[in-house]
Specification:
The structure is a single chain. The chain is built from eleven helices and twelve strands. The protein has 331 residues and is an alpha/beta fold. Strands 3-2-1-4-5-6-10 form a seven-stranded parallel β-sheet, sandwiched between helices. Helix 7 packs across helix 11. The longest helix is centred in the first third of the chain and has 21 residues.
């Protein structure tokens, strides 16, 4: 029997797309799944072995890695607000470190680590940033970005000091089918498509189809250089442009009222105050508003040149996302 490929986060948005891509590429896929997690994204999926484990349980990681020669570490705690921010560091930093050390001990031959463009620097003039744009942890807004920044730094340290055979990918804002949670970007698309977005703020994102992000993972596995990172994105769009494209897809009118960030900030503080009592993640977060003050524009030239990454237009991604939300009764 050929060695297995372990995927963490396989029930999630990006992870389930990576699972499908690896299966189509004839990998023998094993998915590490937390007990009690929502498994709709892997239900009925043929060609994947489900194993139960947790990034906080090193014994379960060693068991999951047995017989594996490849690892795709996609799992992360992606929340812009949490009652206890330390939970994000426990999963994203400590869990990543433990998994990488376990992979080294298990003799894994090749690793693809899913980071995020959240760890990268941004240009003050909103021109597209790249993998080498200067950045420091002091520029990281919120616990999620800080945790991913530190986690990626740990992976790069292990590559340098212990020969960890890891390639790093930095997806931008993926959209498309199977966003069951939905993610913060998916929620924004859903609200706009359903007519629940009366206004917008002046910001920008790099949008990419989630299945193209999965393609980028496989390309990084096959062609990436250990220790290097590759941005997986497609189109740099202002939020207004995103809403205009969604309106074209749905036939509705886009929101026309632009609100200043500082006008919405007090509402975000109020929403988080209520969330601290209800323990339910708020729709509007302080970190989200602070992040929206910056244009998250990125260049994918390195992934295109070195990996042969060829993503489809962002409007196709938005179309697939809207269609999936509609077909699954999210409206």
């Amino acid at each position: 029997m050929k060695p297995a490929t372990l995927v963490t986060g396989g029930t999630g948005f990006i992870g389930s797309a990576v699972l499908r891509k690896l299966i189509s590429a004839s990998h023998r896929v094993r998915a590490l799944v937390r007990s009690g997690s929502d498994q709709r994204n892997v239900a009925g999926l043929e060609g994947v072995e489900i194993v139960t484990g947790d990034l906080r349980d090193r014994a379960s990681l060693m068991a999951a890695l047995e017989g594996c020669d490849a690892l795709f570490h996609v799992a992360a705690d992606y929340r812009l607000w949490a009652p206890d921010p330390q939970e994000l560091f426990t999963t994203n930093v400590e869990g990543t470190r433990d998994l990488m050390l376990a992979a080294l001990e298990s003799g894994v031959r090749r690793i693809v680590y899913t980071s995020s463009v959240a760890t990268l620097g941004l240009n003050p003039d909103a021109s597209p940033a790249d993998e080498d744009t200067p950045v420091s942890i002091e520029q990281m807004i919120g616990a999620y970005k800080r945790s991913k920044f530190v986690a990626e730094a740990e992976v790069r340290r292990l590559v340098k000091e212990k020969g960890l055979p890891a390639v790093i990918v930095n997806p931008s804002a993926p959209v498309g089918p199977r966003d069951i949670r939905p993610t913060p970007t998916g929620r924004m698309i859903l609200d706009a498509a359903a007519g629940r977005m009366p206004a917008y703020v002046d910001t920008g994102l790099n949008i990419v189809h989630v299945d193209d992000v999965a393609d980028g993972h496989l390309l990084a596995y096959e062609k990436g250089t250990e220790g290097e990172r590759y941005i997986l994105g497609e189109s740099n769009l202002t939020l207004r442009e995103i809403f205009q494209q969604i309106a074209e897809i749905t036939g509705a009118n886009p929101p026309r009222l632009r609100l200043p960030h500082n006008l919405i900030l007090p509402v975000a503080y109020l929403a988080e105050g209520i969330a601290s009592i209800t323990k339910k993640e708020p729709r509007l977060t302080v970190d989200g508003i602070q992040l929206a003050k910056k244009y998250m524009f990125f260049s994918i030239d390195k992934a295109v040149r070195d990996l042969g990454f060829r993503p489809r237009p962002a409007k196709d991604a938005l179309t697939d996302a809207v269609q999936w939300f509609r077909e699954n009764d999210y409206f």
